[in-house]
Design brief:
Helix content of chain A: 40-55%
Number of strands of chain A: 10
Distance between the termini of chain A: 46 Å
Mean pLDDT of chain A: 97
Strand order of the largest sheet of chain A: 1-4-3-2-6-7
Oligomer: homodimer
Shape of chain A: globular
Low-confidence stretches of chain A: none
CATH class of the largest domain in chain A: Alpha Beta
Number of helices of chain A: 10
CATH superfamily of the largest domain in chain A: HUPs
Number of domains of chain A: 2
Strand content of chain A: 15-25%
Largest interface: A-B, 29 and 28 residues
CATH topology of the largest domain in chain A: Rossmann fold
Radius of gyration of chain A: 19 Å
Structural class of chain A: alpha/beta
Chain lengths: 282, 282
Amino acid sequence: MPIIHTIADCRSFVANEHNEGHTIGLVPTMGALHEGHLSLMRRARAECDAVVASVFVNPTQFGPSEDFARYPRDLERDAQLAAGTGVDAVFAPSAAEMYPAGFATFVEQSAPVAERLEGQCRPGHFRGVLTVCLKLFNIVGPDRAYFGRKDYQQALVITRMVRDLDLPLEIIRCDTVREPDGLALSSRNQYLDEATRRQALSISRGLGRARGAAAAGERRAAALAEIIRAELLAAGPCSIDYVDIADPDTLAPVETLDGPAVALVAVRIGGTRLIDNCLLEP
Amino acid sequence: MPIIHTIADCRSFVANEHNEGHTIGLVPTMGALHEGHLSLMRRARAECDAVVASVFVNPTQFGPSEDFARYPRDLERDAQLAAGTGVDAVFAPSAAEMYPAGFATFVEQSAPVAERLEGQCRPGHFRGVLTVCLKLFNIVGPDRAYFGRKDYQQALVITRMVRDLDLPLEIIRCDTVREPDGLALSSRNQYLDEATRRQALSISRGLGRARGAAAAGERRAAALAEIIRAELLAAGPCSIDYVDIADPDTLAPVETLDGPAVALVAVRIGGTRLIDNCLLEP
Protein backbone atom coordinates (compact mmCIF):
# COMPACT_ATOMS: atom_id res chain seq x y z
CA MET A 1 0.00 0.00 0.00
CA PRO A 2 1.54 3.34 -1.06
CA ILE A 3 2.17 6.22 1.33
CA ILE A 4 1.58 9.37 -0.72
CA HIS A 5 3.44 12.46 0.46
CA THR A 6 2.52 15.19 -2.03
CA ILE A 7 -0.73 16.78 -3.17
CA ALA A 8 0.17 16.21 -6.84
CA ASP A 9 0.76 12.48 -6.28
CA CYS A 10 -2.51 12.20 -4.38
CA ARG A 11 -4.38 13.93 -7.19
CA SER A 12 -2.99 11.51 -9.77
CA PHE A 13 -3.77 8.51 -7.57
CA VAL A 14 -7.43 9.52 -7.23
CA ALA A 15 -7.66 10.67 -10.87
CA ASN A 16 -6.88 7.08 -11.90
CA GLU A 17 -9.60 5.78 -9.60
CA HIS A 18 -12.11 8.35 -10.89
CA ASN A 19 -11.23 7.50 -14.49
CA GLU A 20 -12.10 3.89 -13.80
CA GLY A 21 -15.45 5.01 -12.43
CA HIS A 22 -14.54 4.03 -8.88
CA THR A 23 -16.16 5.61 -5.84
CA ILE A 24 -13.69 6.98 -3.31
CA GLY A 25 -13.93 6.93 0.47
CA LEU A 26 -11.78 9.23 2.61
CA VAL A 27 -10.93 8.68 6.27
CA PRO A 28 -9.22 11.84 7.54
CA THR A 29 -7.09 11.25 10.66
CA MET A 30 -4.28 12.86 12.61
CA GLY A 31 -2.57 9.48 12.85
CA ALA A 32 -1.87 7.75 16.20
CA LEU A 33 -4.42 5.31 14.84
CA HIS A 34 -6.54 3.21 17.17
CA GLU A 35 -9.44 0.84 16.73
CA GLY A 36 -11.80 3.82 16.34
CA HIS A 37 -9.99 5.01 13.22
CA LEU A 38 -9.66 1.45 11.94
CA SER A 39 -13.40 0.88 12.26
CA LEU A 40 -13.94 3.93 10.01
CA MET A 41 -11.50 2.50 7.46
CA ARG A 42 -13.26 -0.89 7.48
CA ARG A 43 -16.61 0.79 6.96
CA ALA A 44 -15.16 2.84 4.07
CA ARG A 45 -13.61 -0.34 2.65
CA ALA A 46 -17.02 -2.02 2.67
CA GLU A 47 -18.81 0.92 1.04
CA CYS A 48 -16.34 2.37 -1.50
CA ASP A 49 -14.28 1.07 -4.44
CA ALA A 50 -11.14 2.89 -3.29
CA VAL A 51 -10.23 4.10 0.20
CA VAL A 52 -7.75 6.83 1.09
CA ALA A 53 -6.81 7.45 4.72
CA SER A 54 -5.10 10.74 5.42
CA VAL A 55 -2.60 11.13 8.26
CA PHE A 56 -1.90 14.77 9.01
CA VAL A 57 -1.43 16.44 12.39
CA ASN A 58 -3.08 19.69 11.39
CA PRO A 59 -1.35 22.64 13.04
CA THR A 60 -4.20 25.12 12.44
CA GLN A 61 -6.63 23.27 14.70
CA PHE A 62 -4.38 23.43 17.78
CA GLY A 63 -4.36 26.46 20.07
CA PRO A 64 -1.02 27.97 21.11
CA SER A 65 -1.11 26.24 24.53
CA GLU A 66 -2.31 22.89 23.22
CA ASP A 67 -0.50 19.62 22.53
CA PHE A 68 0.49 20.06 18.86
CA ALA A 69 4.21 19.49 19.53
CA ARG A 70 3.77 16.38 21.65
CA TYR A 71 0.84 14.89 19.72
CA PRO A 72 1.89 11.26 18.99
CA ARG A 73 3.34 10.68 15.50
CA ASP A 74 4.37 7.29 14.05
CA LEU A 75 3.62 7.17 10.32
CA GLU A 76 5.12 3.74 9.74
CA ARG A 77 2.94 2.13 12.42
CA ASP A 78 -0.12 4.07 11.17
CA ALA A 79 0.47 2.94 7.58
CA GLN A 80 0.75 -0.70 8.69
CA LEU A 81 -2.48 -0.49 10.65
CA ALA A 82 -4.29 1.23 7.78
CA ALA A 83 -2.99 -1.34 5.28
CA GLY A 84 -4.39 -4.06 7.54
CA THR A 85 -7.91 -2.73 7.02
CA GLY A 86 -7.54 -2.83 3.22
CA VAL A 87 -7.05 0.90 2.69
CA ASP A 88 -5.65 1.59 -0.83
CA ALA A 89 -3.39 4.52 0.05
CA VAL A 90 -2.30 6.65 2.98
CA PHE A 91 -2.00 10.35 2.19
CA ALA A 92 0.47 12.02 4.56
CA PRO A 93 1.22 15.52 3.27
CA SER A 94 3.69 17.92 4.84
CA ALA A 95 2.55 20.99 6.76
CA ALA A 96 4.78 23.06 4.46
CA GLU A 97 2.79 21.96 1.41
CA MET A 98 -0.62 22.16 3.10
CA TYR A 99 0.08 25.65 4.48
CA PRO A 100 2.64 27.32 2.20
CA ALA A 101 4.00 30.79 2.97
CA GLY A 102 1.25 33.36 2.55
CA PHE A 103 -1.58 30.93 3.25
CA ALA A 104 -4.53 33.14 4.12
CA THR A 105 -7.88 31.47 3.35
CA PHE A 106 -9.97 29.83 6.07
CA VAL A 107 -13.47 28.46 6.51
CA GLU A 108 -15.42 29.96 9.40
CA GLN A 109 -18.73 28.80 10.83
CA SER A 110 -20.90 31.05 12.96
CA ALA A 111 -23.79 28.85 14.08
CA PRO A 112 -24.29 27.67 17.70
CA VAL A 113 -23.22 24.25 16.42
CA ALA A 114 -19.72 25.69 15.89
CA GLU A 115 -19.65 28.38 18.55
CA ARG A 116 -20.70 26.48 21.69
CA LEU A 117 -18.73 23.86 23.67
CA GLU A 118 -15.49 23.04 21.78
CA GLY A 119 -15.93 26.27 19.81
CA GLN A 120 -15.90 28.23 23.06
CA CYS A 121 -13.16 26.23 24.82
CA ARG A 122 -10.84 26.05 21.80
CA PRO A 123 -11.07 29.33 19.83
CA GLY A 124 -10.06 28.77 16.21
CA HIS A 125 -10.21 24.98 16.55
CA PHE A 126 -13.12 24.42 14.18
CA ARG A 127 -11.73 27.02 11.77
CA GLY A 128 -8.66 24.80 11.50
CA VAL A 129 -10.69 21.58 11.31
CA LEU A 130 -13.04 22.89 8.62
CA THR A 131 -10.23 24.39 6.57
CA VAL A 132 -8.11 21.23 6.55
CA CYS A 133 -11.12 19.01 5.85
CA LEU A 134 -12.14 21.22 2.93
CA LYS A 135 -8.57 21.03 1.57
CA LEU A 136 -8.52 17.23 1.93
CA PHE A 137 -11.93 16.97 0.25
CA ASN A 138 -10.66 19.11 -2.64
CA ILE A 139 -7.49 17.07 -3.02
CA VAL A 140 -9.02 13.60 -2.72
CA GLY A 141 -12.46 14.30 -4.22
CA PRO A 142 -14.16 11.59 -2.14
CA ASP A 143 -17.74 10.43 -2.61
CA ARG A 144 -17.91 9.75 1.14
CA ALA A 145 -15.85 10.87 4.12
CA TYR A 146 -15.96 9.05 7.46
CA PHE A 147 -15.87 10.60 10.92
CA GLY A 148 -16.35 9.16 14.38
CA ARG A 149 -19.12 10.22 16.76
CA LYS A 150 -16.60 10.53 19.61
CA ASP A 151 -15.89 13.99 18.19
CA TYR A 152 -19.62 14.59 18.01
CA GLN A 153 -19.51 18.34 17.46
CA GLN A 154 -16.73 18.06 14.87
CA ALA A 155 -18.82 15.65 12.79
CA LEU A 156 -21.82 18.02 12.99
CA VAL A 157 -19.78 21.07 12.03
CA ILE A 158 -18.28 19.27 9.03
CA THR A 159 -21.70 18.00 7.94
CA ARG A 160 -22.95 21.57 8.12
CA MET A 161 -20.03 22.82 6.01
CA VAL A 162 -20.72 20.19 3.36
CA ARG A 163 -24.34 21.31 3.16
CA ASP A 164 -23.65 25.07 3.25
CA LEU A 165 -20.85 24.97 0.66
CA ASP A 166 -22.60 22.43 -1.62
CA LEU A 167 -19.70 20.00 -1.44
CA PRO A 168 -20.40 16.98 -3.63
CA LEU A 169 -19.82 14.32 -0.98
CA GLU A 170 -21.57 12.56 1.88
CA ILE A 171 -20.39 12.66 5.49
CA ILE A 172 -20.77 9.30 7.22
CA ARG A 173 -20.83 9.48 11.02
CA CYS A 174 -19.83 6.26 12.78
CA ASP A 175 -20.31 5.08 16.33
CA THR A 176 -17.67 5.61 18.99
CA VAL A 177 -15.47 2.60 19.68
CA ARG A 178 -14.82 1.94 23.38
CA GLU A 179 -12.48 -0.14 25.51
CA PRO A 180 -14.24 -3.07 27.22
CA ASP A 181 -14.45 -0.95 30.41
CA GLY A 182 -16.19 1.91 28.58
CA LEU A 183 -13.36 4.39 27.91
CA ALA A 184 -13.87 5.99 24.49
CA LEU A 185 -10.86 5.36 22.26
CA SER A 186 -8.76 8.46 21.70
CA SER A 187 -5.19 9.06 20.57
CA ARG A 188 -4.86 11.21 23.69
CA ASN A 189 -5.48 8.17 25.94
CA GLN A 190 -1.74 7.56 25.43
CA TYR A 191 -1.13 10.49 27.76
CA LEU A 192 -2.91 8.70 30.66
CA ASP A 193 -1.10 6.72 33.36
CA GLU A 194 -2.75 3.92 35.33
CA ALA A 195 -4.32 6.23 37.92
CA THR A 196 -5.63 8.87 35.50
CA ARG A 197 -6.88 6.17 33.14
CA ARG A 198 -8.91 4.65 36.01
CA GLN A 199 -10.20 8.11 36.88
CA ALA A 200 -11.16 8.74 33.23
CA LEU A 201 -13.67 5.89 33.42
CA SER A 202 -15.86 8.35 35.34
CA ILE A 203 -16.68 9.98 31.98
CA SER A 204 -18.36 7.00 30.32
CA ARG A 205 -19.80 5.93 33.70
CA GLY A 206 -21.37 9.36 34.18
CA LEU A 207 -22.75 9.41 30.65
CA GLY A 208 -24.15 5.91 31.13
CA ARG A 209 -25.88 6.92 34.37
CA ALA A 210 -27.39 9.99 32.69
CA ARG A 211 -28.58 7.82 29.82
CA GLY A 212 -30.17 5.44 32.32
CA ALA A 213 -31.83 8.29 34.19
CA ALA A 214 -33.25 9.74 30.97
CA ALA A 215 -34.59 6.34 29.95
CA ALA A 216 -36.14 6.04 33.43
CA GLY A 217 -38.03 9.31 33.01
CA GLU A 218 -35.74 12.15 34.12
CA ARG A 219 -36.56 15.02 31.75
CA ARG A 220 -34.69 17.90 33.41
CA ALA A 221 -31.43 18.59 31.54
CA ALA A 222 -29.91 20.24 34.62
CA ALA A 223 -30.53 17.11 36.68
CA LEU A 224 -29.02 14.89 34.00
CA ALA A 225 -25.94 17.11 33.72
CA GLU A 226 -25.61 17.03 37.50
CA ILE A 227 -25.50 13.20 37.47
CA ILE A 228 -22.51 13.33 35.08
CA ARG A 229 -20.78 16.16 36.92
CA ALA A 230 -21.09 14.36 40.27
CA GLU A 231 -19.60 11.18 38.78
CA LEU A 232 -16.61 13.12 37.38
CA LEU A 233 -15.96 14.97 40.63
CA ALA A 234 -16.33 11.84 42.78
CA ALA A 235 -13.55 10.12 40.81
CA GLY A 236 -10.82 12.57 41.77
CA PRO A 237 -9.38 15.98 40.96
CA CYS A 238 -10.36 17.19 37.50
CA SER A 239 -11.18 20.36 35.64
CA ILE A 240 -14.51 20.25 33.83
CA ASP A 241 -14.61 22.33 30.64
CA TYR A 242 -18.29 21.54 30.14
CA VAL A 243 -21.06 19.05 30.79
CA ASP A 244 -23.86 19.93 28.41
CA ILE A 245 -27.23 18.56 27.34
CA ALA A 246 -27.98 19.75 23.81
CA ASP A 247 -30.11 19.28 20.73
CA PRO A 248 -28.49 16.43 18.77
CA ASP A 249 -28.58 18.34 15.45
CA THR A 250 -28.07 22.01 16.31
CA LEU A 251 -26.31 21.64 19.69
CA ALA A 252 -28.60 24.37 21.04
CA PRO A 253 -28.91 23.96 24.81
CA VAL A 254 -31.85 21.86 26.01
CA GLU A 255 -33.73 22.50 29.25
CA THR A 256 -36.29 19.70 29.12
CA LEU A 257 -35.98 16.50 27.12
CA ASP A 258 -38.94 16.44 24.71
CA GLY A 259 -37.05 14.08 22.41
CA PRO A 260 -33.55 12.71 21.97
CA ALA A 261 -30.74 14.91 23.26
CA VAL A 262 -27.00 14.52 23.40
CA ALA A 263 -24.92 14.74 26.55
CA LEU A 264 -21.43 16.10 25.90
CA VAL A 265 -18.46 16.20 28.24
CA ALA A 266 -15.02 17.79 28.11
CA VAL A 267 -12.82 17.33 31.14
CA ARG A 268 -9.14 17.61 31.99
CA ILE A 269 -7.78 14.74 34.05
CA GLY A 270 -4.13 14.90 35.06
CA GLY A 271 -3.35 17.41 32.32
CA THR A 272 -5.08 15.40 29.57
CA ARG A 273 -8.19 16.86 27.99
CA LEU A 274 -10.74 14.16 27.15
CA ILE A 275 -14.12 14.44 25.42
CA ASP A 276 -17.01 12.00 25.14
CA ASN A 277 -20.74 12.05 24.55
CA CYS A 278 -23.82 9.87 24.43
CA LEU A 279 -27.35 10.08 23.15
CA LEU A 280 -30.10 10.46 25.77
CA GLU A 281 -33.45 9.00 24.75
CA PRO A 282 -36.39 9.83 26.98
CA MET B 1 -30.28 26.95 -24.26
CA PRO B 2 -31.68 25.88 -20.88
CA ILE B 3 -32.01 28.18 -17.88
CA ILE B 4 -31.35 25.99 -14.84
CA HIS B 5 -32.96 27.15 -11.62
CA THR B 6 -32.01 24.53 -9.02
CA ILE B 7 -28.75 23.14 -7.68
CA ALA B 8 -29.91 19.56 -8.31
CA ASP B 9 -30.68 20.29 -11.98
CA CYS B 10 -27.33 22.02 -12.39
CA ARG B 11 -25.53 19.02 -10.86
CA SER B 12 -27.21 16.62 -13.28
CA PHE B 13 -26.48 18.88 -16.26
CA VAL B 14 -22.75 18.98 -15.45
CA ALA B 15 -22.67 15.27 -14.47
CA ASN B 16 -23.72 14.45 -18.02
CA GLU B 17 -20.95 16.62 -19.40
CA HIS B 18 -18.38 15.07 -17.05
CA ASN B 19 -19.53 11.58 -17.97
CA GLU B 20 -18.83 12.35 -21.60
CA GLY B 21 -15.33 13.48 -20.64
CA HIS B 22 -16.08 17.12 -21.43
CA THR B 23 -14.18 19.99 -19.84
CA ILE B 24 -16.43 22.61 -18.25
CA GLY B 25 -15.97 26.36 -18.19
CA LEU B 26 -17.84 28.54 -15.69
CA VAL B 27 -18.50 32.26 -16.06
CA PRO B 28 -19.95 33.53 -12.76
CA THR B 29 -21.92 36.76 -13.12
CA MET B 30 -24.52 38.81 -11.27
CA GLY B 31 -26.41 39.29 -14.54
CA ALA B 32 -27.01 42.71 -16.11
CA LEU B 33 -24.70 41.30 -18.76
CA HIS B 34 -22.58 43.57 -20.90
CA GLU B 35 -19.86 43.06 -23.48
CA GLY B 36 -17.34 42.44 -20.67
CA HIS B 37 -19.25 39.37 -19.47
CA LEU B 38 -19.88 38.24 -23.04
CA SER B 39 -16.15 38.38 -23.82
CA LEU B 40 -15.57 35.98 -20.88
CA MET B 41 -18.24 33.65 -22.25
CA ARG B 42 -16.70 33.67 -25.73
CA ARG B 43 -13.28 32.90 -24.28
CA ALA B 44 -14.77 30.03 -22.23
CA ARG B 45 -16.59 28.81 -25.36
CA ALA B 46 -13.30 28.71 -27.24
CA GLU B 47 -11.42 26.87 -24.47
CA CYS B 48 -13.95 24.42 -22.97
CA ASP B 49 -16.26 21.67 -24.22
CA ALA B 50 -19.20 22.94 -22.19
CA VAL B 51 -19.84 26.41 -20.79
CA VAL B 52 -22.11 27.33 -17.88
CA ALA B 53 -22.78 30.99 -17.10
CA SER B 54 -24.24 31.68 -13.69
CA VAL B 55 -26.54 34.64 -13.06
CA PHE B 56 -26.98 35.30 -9.35
CA VAL B 57 -27.15 38.63 -7.54
CA ASN B 58 -25.37 37.41 -4.44
CA PRO B 59 -26.81 39.06 -1.32
CA THR B 60 -23.86 38.21 0.95
CA GLN B 61 -21.41 40.40 -0.97
CA PHE B 62 -23.46 43.59 -0.59
CA GLY B 63 -23.17 45.77 2.51
CA PRO B 64 -26.34 46.94 4.28
CA SER B 65 -26.15 50.41 2.66
CA GLU B 66 -25.24 49.15 -0.81
CA ASP B 67 -27.28 48.69 -3.98
CA PHE B 68 -28.47 45.06 -3.60
CA ALA B 69 -32.17 45.96 -3.91
CA ARG B 70 -31.80 48.16 -6.98
CA TYR B 71 -29.07 46.13 -8.71
CA PRO B 72 -30.37 45.60 -12.29
CA ARG B 73 -32.07 42.22 -12.91
CA ASP B 74 -33.37 40.95 -16.26
CA LEU B 75 -32.86 37.20 -16.55
CA GLU B 76 -34.61 36.83 -19.91
CA ARG B 77 -32.36 39.41 -21.56
CA ASP B 78 -29.27 37.95 -19.84
CA ALA B 79 -30.14 34.44 -21.05
CA GLN B 80 -30.57 35.68 -24.63
CA LEU B 81 -27.21 37.45 -24.57
CA ALA B 82 -25.48 34.41 -23.04
CA ALA B 83 -27.08 32.11 -25.62
CA GLY B 84 -25.73 34.38 -28.35
CA THR B 85 -22.17 33.61 -27.24
CA GLY B 86 -22.75 29.85 -27.45
CA VAL B 87 -23.06 29.19 -23.71
CA ASP B 88 -24.61 25.75 -23.05
CA ALA B 89 -26.64 26.64 -19.96
CA VAL B 90 -27.41 29.55 -17.66
CA PHE B 91 -27.54 28.65 -13.98
CA ALA B 92 -29.77 31.09 -12.10
CA PRO B 93 -30.39 29.73 -8.60
CA SER B 94 -32.61 31.35 -5.99
CA ALA B 95 -31.17 33.09 -2.95
CA ALA B 96 -33.40 30.85 -0.82
CA GLU B 97 -31.67 27.73 -2.14
CA MET B 98 -28.17 29.22 -2.10
CA TYR B 99 -28.57 30.51 1.47
CA PRO B 100 -31.17 28.35 3.23
CA ALA B 101 -32.28 29.06 6.78
CA GLY B 102 -29.41 28.39 9.17
CA PHE B 103 -26.68 29.00 6.59
CA ALA B 104 -23.54 29.62 8.66
CA THR B 105 -20.35 28.73 6.75
CA PHE B 106 -18.20 31.37 5.08
CA VAL B 107 -14.76 31.65 3.50
CA GLU B 108 -12.56 34.36 4.98
CA GLN B 109 -9.25 35.63 3.67
CA SER B 110 -6.82 37.54 5.84
CA ALA B 111 -4.01 38.58 3.51
CA PRO B 112 -3.37 42.20 2.41
CA VAL B 113 -4.71 41.12 -0.98
CA ALA B 114 -8.14 40.75 0.67
CA GLU B 115 -7.89 43.30 3.44
CA ARG B 116 -6.78 46.44 1.60
CA LEU B 117 -8.79 48.63 -0.85
CA GLU B 118 -12.18 46.95 -1.51
CA GLY B 119 -11.65 44.85 1.62
CA GLN B 120 -11.38 48.01 3.68
CA CYS B 121 -14.13 50.00 1.90
CA ARG B 122 -16.61 47.13 1.78
CA PRO B 123 -16.29 45.03 4.95
CA GLY B 124 -17.56 41.50 4.35
CA HIS B 125 -17.62 41.98 0.57
CA PHE B 126 -14.90 39.45 -0.25
CA ARG B 127 -16.27 37.05 2.35
CA GLY B 128 -19.48 37.03 0.32
CA VAL B 129 -17.66 36.84 -3.02
CA LEU B 130 -15.40 33.96 -1.95
CA THR B 131 -18.25 32.04 -0.36
CA VAL B 132 -20.54 32.26 -3.37
CA CYS B 133 -17.72 31.46 -5.80
CA LEU B 134 -16.76 28.41 -3.75
CA LYS B 135 -20.39 27.27 -3.76
CA LEU B 136 -20.64 27.76 -7.54
CA PHE B 137 -17.36 25.89 -8.07
CA ASN B 138 -18.68 23.01 -5.93
CA ILE B 139 -21.99 22.88 -7.79
CA VAL B 140 -20.65 23.22 -11.34
CA GLY B 141 -17.26 21.51 -10.90
CA PRO B 142 -15.60 23.58 -13.64
CA ASP B 143 -12.13 22.95 -15.04
CA ARG B 144 -11.78 26.70 -15.60
CA ALA B 145 -13.60 29.75 -14.25
CA TYR B 146 -13.41 33.14 -15.98
CA PHE B 147 -13.20 36.54 -14.31
CA GLY B 148 -12.60 40.03 -15.66
CA ARG B 149 -9.64 42.19 -14.68
CA LYS B 150 -11.95 45.20 -14.16
CA ASP B 151 -12.55 43.67 -10.71
CA TYR B 152 -8.80 43.26 -10.34
CA GLN B 153 -8.71 42.58 -6.61
CA GLN B 154 -11.64 40.16 -6.80
CA ALA B 155 -9.83 38.04 -9.39
CA LEU B 156 -6.69 37.99 -7.22
CA VAL B 157 -8.60 37.04 -4.08
CA ILE B 158 -10.38 34.19 -5.87
CA THR B 159 -7.11 32.96 -7.39
CA ARG B 160 -5.64 32.93 -3.90
CA MET B 161 -8.60 30.96 -2.52
CA VAL B 162 -8.23 28.37 -5.28
CA ARG B 163 -4.56 27.91 -4.40
CA ASP B 164 -5.03 27.91 -0.59
CA LEU B 165 -7.98 25.51 -0.61
CA ASP B 166 -6.54 23.21 -3.32
CA LEU B 167 -9.55 23.65 -5.56
CA PRO B 168 -9.17 21.54 -8.70
CA LEU B 169 -9.75 24.32 -11.23
CA GLU B 170 -7.94 27.13 -12.98
CA ILE B 171 -8.89 30.79 -12.72
CA ILE B 172 -8.62 32.63 -16.04
CA ARG B 173 -8.32 36.40 -15.74
CA CYS B 174 -9.40 38.34 -18.82
CA ASP B 175 -8.79 41.90 -19.93
CA THR B 176 -11.23 44.68 -19.12
CA VAL B 177 -13.58 45.60 -21.97
CA ARG B 178 -14.04 49.36 -22.47
CA GLU B 179 -16.38 51.70 -24.34
CA PRO B 180 -14.70 53.41 -27.30
CA ASP B 181 -14.20 56.49 -25.11
CA GLY B 182 -12.39 54.47 -22.42
CA LEU B 183 -15.10 53.87 -19.79
CA ALA B 184 -14.67 50.37 -18.33
CA LEU B 185 -17.85 48.34 -18.86
CA SER B 186 -19.79 47.77 -15.64
CA SER B 187 -23.36 46.84 -14.88
CA ARG B 188 -23.38 49.89 -12.60
CA ASN B 189 -22.82 52.21 -15.59
CA GLN B 190 -26.60 51.92 -15.99
CA TYR B 191 -26.92 54.19 -12.95
CA LEU B 192 -25.08 57.05 -14.74
CA ASP B 193 -26.84 59.90 -16.52
CA GLU B 194 -25.26 61.89 -19.33
CA ALA B 195 -23.39 64.28 -17.04
CA THR B 196 -22.07 61.69 -14.58
CA ARG B 197 -21.14 59.38 -17.44
CA ARG B 198 -19.05 62.17 -18.97
CA GLN B 199 -17.49 62.85 -15.56
CA ALA B 200 -16.71 59.13 -15.13
CA LEU B 201 -14.37 59.29 -18.11
CA SER B 202 -11.92 60.98 -15.75
CA ILE B 203 -11.20 57.52 -14.28
CA SER B 204 -9.80 55.89 -17.41
CA ARG B 205 -8.25 59.21 -18.46
CA GLY B 206 -6.43 59.50 -15.12
CA LEU B 207 -5.29 55.88 -15.28
CA GLY B 208 -4.07 56.42 -18.84
CA ARG B 209 -2.09 59.52 -17.85
CA ALA B 210 -0.49 57.66 -14.93
CA ARG B 211 0.39 54.81 -17.26
CA GLY B 212 1.96 57.28 -19.65
CA ALA B 213 3.91 58.97 -16.86
CA ALA B 214 5.23 55.60 -15.61
CA ALA B 215 6.28 54.65 -19.12
CA ALA B 216 8.01 58.04 -19.42
CA GLY B 217 10.07 57.41 -16.30
CA GLU B 218 8.04 58.52 -13.28
CA ARG B 219 8.87 55.98 -10.54
CA ARG B 220 7.28 57.64 -7.48
CA ALA B 221 3.98 55.95 -6.66
CA ALA B 222 2.75 59.04 -4.80
CA ALA B 223 3.29 61.19 -7.88
CA LEU B 224 1.51 58.67 -10.10
CA ALA B 225 -1.44 58.48 -7.69
CA GLU B 226 -1.57 62.27 -7.62
CA ILE B 227 -1.91 62.39 -11.43
CA ILE B 228 -5.02 60.17 -11.19
CA ARG B 229 -6.46 62.00 -8.20
CA ALA B 230 -6.05 65.39 -9.91
CA GLU B 231 -7.82 64.10 -13.02
CA LEU B 232 -10.76 62.80 -10.95
CA LEU B 233 -11.12 66.02 -8.96
CA ALA B 234 -10.81 68.26 -12.03
CA ALA B 235 -13.79 66.52 -13.65
CA GLY B 236 -16.32 67.55 -10.99
CA PRO B 237 -17.58 66.69 -7.53
CA CYS B 238 -16.74 63.14 -6.53
CA SER B 239 -15.83 61.11 -3.48
CA ILE B 240 -12.62 59.13 -3.84
CA ASP B 241 -12.59 55.84 -1.87
CA TYR B 242 -9.00 55.18 -2.91
CA VAL B 243 -6.36 55.75 -5.54
CA ASP B 244 -3.64 53.19 -4.93
CA ILE B 245 -0.43 51.98 -6.55
CA ALA B 246 0.18 48.38 -5.52
CA ASP B 247 2.09 45.21 -6.21
CA PRO B 248 0.19 43.44 -9.02
CA ASP B 249 0.19 40.05 -7.23
CA THR B 250 -0.03 40.80 -3.50
CA LEU B 251 -1.61 44.29 -3.65
CA ALA B 252 0.91 45.40 -1.04
CA PRO B 253 1.42 49.18 -1.35
CA VAL B 254 4.29 50.28 -3.57
CA GLU B 255 6.39 53.40 -2.98
CA THR B 256 8.75 53.23 -5.94
CA LEU B 257 8.15 51.36 -9.18
CA ASP B 258 10.93 48.81 -9.48
CA GLY B 259 8.79 46.69 -11.79
CA PRO B 260 5.20 46.52 -12.97
CA ALA B 261 2.60 47.85 -10.52
CA VAL B 262 -1.15 48.21 -10.68
CA ALA B 263 -3.02 51.48 -10.23
CA LEU B 264 -6.45 50.96 -8.67
CA VAL B 265 -9.26 53.48 -8.31
CA ALA B 266 -12.61 53.48 -6.51
CA VAL B 267 -14.66 56.65 -6.74
CA ARG B 268 -18.26 57.70 -6.21
CA ILE B 269 -19.65 59.95 -8.91
CA GLY B 270 -23.22 61.16 -8.52
CA GLY B 271 -24.00 58.37 -6.04
CA THR B 272 -22.57 55.60 -8.22
CA ARG B 273 -19.47 53.78 -7.03
CA LEU B 274 -17.14 52.89 -9.90
CA ILE B 275 -13.86 50.97 -9.89
CA ASP B 276 -11.16 50.62 -12.51
CA ASN B 277 -7.46 49.82 -12.72
CA CYS B 278 -4.54 49.60 -15.09
CA LEU B 279 -1.07 48.12 -15.15
CA LEU B 280 1.83 50.56 -14.87
CA GLU B 281 5.00 49.42 -16.59
CA PRO B 282 8.13 51.45 -15.85
